[in-house]
Amino acid sequence: MKILLLLQVSFITILVVFSNYTSGQCLEDQTALLIKFKNNLTFDSSDSTKLAMWDENSTDCCQWPGVSCDEEGHVLALELDDEAISGGIENLSSLFHLRYLEKLNLAYNGLYSVPIPREIYKLANLMYLNLFLASFNGQIPMELSRLTKLEILDLSGGDLQLERPGLKTLVGNLANLRELYLDSVSISLKGSEWCSALSSSLPQLRVLSMIDCKISGPLDPVLLNLPFLSVIRLDYNDLSTMVPDFLANFTKLTTLSVSWCKLFGPFPSKLFQVPTLEELDLLGNENLTGTLPEFPHKSALRELSLGETCFTGLLPVSIADLPCLTMLDLHNCNFSGPIPSTMGNLTNLVSLDLSKNSFTGSIPLFHEANNFYSIDISNNNGPLSSAQLGDLLSLPSLHNNYLNGSIPRSIFKLSGLSNLSLSSNSFSGTINIHAVKGLPSLSILDLSYNNLRIDVQGSNSTSFPFPQITELKLVSCQLQKFPDLKNQSIMITLDLSDNNISGQVPSWIWSLGLSYLNLSCNFIESLEEPYDTSSQFWSVIDLHNNRIQGNIPIVPTSLIYLSIASNNHIGSIPSFICNLNRILFLDMSNNSINNKLPPCLC
Questions:
Q1: Judging by beta carbons within 10 Å of its beta carbon (0-12, 13-18, 19+), is residue 163 exposed, middle or buried?
Q2: Does residue 465 lie in a domain region?
Q3: Does residue 367 carry a pLDDT above 60?
Q4: Does residue 179 fall inside a structural domain?
Q5: For the Leucine-rich repeat-containing N-terminal plant-type domain, which residue ranges apply (predicted)?
């Protein structure tokens, strides 16, 4: 999500800065330089959509994909992102003779073990340089500091260092810089050092992104010398500091993203009142405390993420007065009380995660106008299931909500919804499985551990258009039979445990491509023949506490977890058990099998 947002910010700026390019007839010398440049590059032509189309017999290089020119035919821009370039960039004198070049984009290439060429300073007219995920490595050359016309600089995502000389030397002459992206660049500076280096050199800076740069805190008030700063992204750094009040003094602040930064202490409530603030991300700062204030009536807030912090208290009624809100993530906090019913009026809300809190009452009545893709207000107070064993296949542990009443039928009319997780609350009533017909985009459905009854009568796959989903969890939902899922093609997880299902496990279940299957705690008596368990995608099968008879069934050799305990199996332990070389958990207890163990188990 962060990468996408960064690219979105850059793209908007690119449109503004470079929308005035016009294309004249390409000059002969420019064509020659481009052809020489191409011929010296190493790239995979089968994955190239631009370079592979450059043809020296073409009369106008300004019409080549990825090339833009001015009216006189000078090359102004090269957009060679995602062109499968893997080498040859080190000694490209032809590139550095494109003296009119204002924009160079080499993002998303594979230049591993290659340093950024020092000769890049010869492109003195560069205003835009994007090396995002181009995979350059080594020390960032200080020759970049000679590109004094730069307005946008993105060096993110490689294996780069900025040390001795460091950040202060790099940005010292870049007074025109408006956007700086240094994500994953190793900088290793204290708060006073990197704050001072930026504030003394970049008076026009609007976007600062230094995610995972090994910088530390505290944040220095000298940053206020950057009056135009609107986007601050410092995620995944060990800032180990309190959030300073002065951040609320940035009058143009639209984004503050400081997730997983080891922030602590009370969060300044006045930051919520900044009228321009659109995105606030405090995720993962588990020692950060605070409460949600009453929000201003004309707040611009679009995304609010406080998950895994120590925020407490009630959701203010004014949260329903955030007309622009698209994402609200409060999972694993200490919120309590009712969810304001007026939240159903937030028609722009697409992602809601209120899990692992202590909310009470009912779900707001959401309108069909909501274009939701994710609703998660689930918990995990139900019985321990094998899905909770380790981190390998388990979803986040979500508990402590106490929502009750019936699930509003309006939820099943949110046609854009892809994730609906309402498990382990106290919802009641009967839901016919046909209700999911109104959710054609559904990918994850979890209604487990409530007081619900799921009716699957008449769910024949030939007449019932069940959406193609990846995860279906209907644990403890009073199921009497298997829902007809034989037309599913992308399902990975199926959990129908703790129900009243009897009879046979249908043979089509083994052809779904599942990785995780839990049918434990039912009244199943057998596996329908023939069944094919040859797939290597399987990781977990849990059939314990049923009435399955006969010999131990053949299972996939790729299993990590297998439980067939408390059934009516007979005979001896089969030799194929020795082929389960990935197994971490194996339970065959409480059956009528003999006690002789195959030597391989020892």
A1: middle
A2: no
A3: yes
A4: yes
A5: 28-70
Residue 343 in tokens = 């939240």
Mean pLDDT across the chain: 87
CA distance 535 to 157: 36
Could you read off the pLDDT of 274-306 as tens digits, one per residue? 999 999 999 999 999 999 999 988 889 999 999
Tens-place pLDDT, residues 382-391: 333 333 333 2
Contacts of residue 114, defined as CB under 8 A and 6 or more positions apart, other chains included, come to: 87, 89, 90, 135, 136, 137
pTM of the model: 0.81
Residue 308 lies in a domain: no
Provide CB contacts within 8 A for 488, sequence distance 6+.
Answer: 466, 468, 469, 512
What element of type H or E holds 502?
strand 502-505
Instruction: For residue 438, give the amino acid letter.
Output: G
Which residue bears the tokens 């020489």? Answer: 36
The least confident of 53-57, 182-186, 302-306, 595-599 is 595-599
What distance in Å separates the CA atoms of residue 505 and residue 508, rounded to the nearest whole number? 9
Are the C-beta atoms of 453 and 431 separated by less than 8 Å?
yes
b (16+ CB within 10 A) / e for 385-399: bbbebeeebebbebb
Residue 563 counted as domain residue: yes
Looking up residue 193, the CATH number of its domain turns out to be 3.80.10.10
Report whether the peptide linkage leading into residue 141 is cis, meaning its omega lies within 30 degrees of zero: no
Give dist(CA 252, CA 259) in Å, integer.
Answer: 21
Where does a domain end: 241, 268, 296? 241
Range of the domain at 43: 1-13+24-241
What's at 369, amino acid-wise?
A
As for how many domains the chain has, the answer is: 2
Strand (E) or helix (H) holding 246: none
Q: Of the candidates 208, 226, 241, which is a domain's last residue?
A: 241
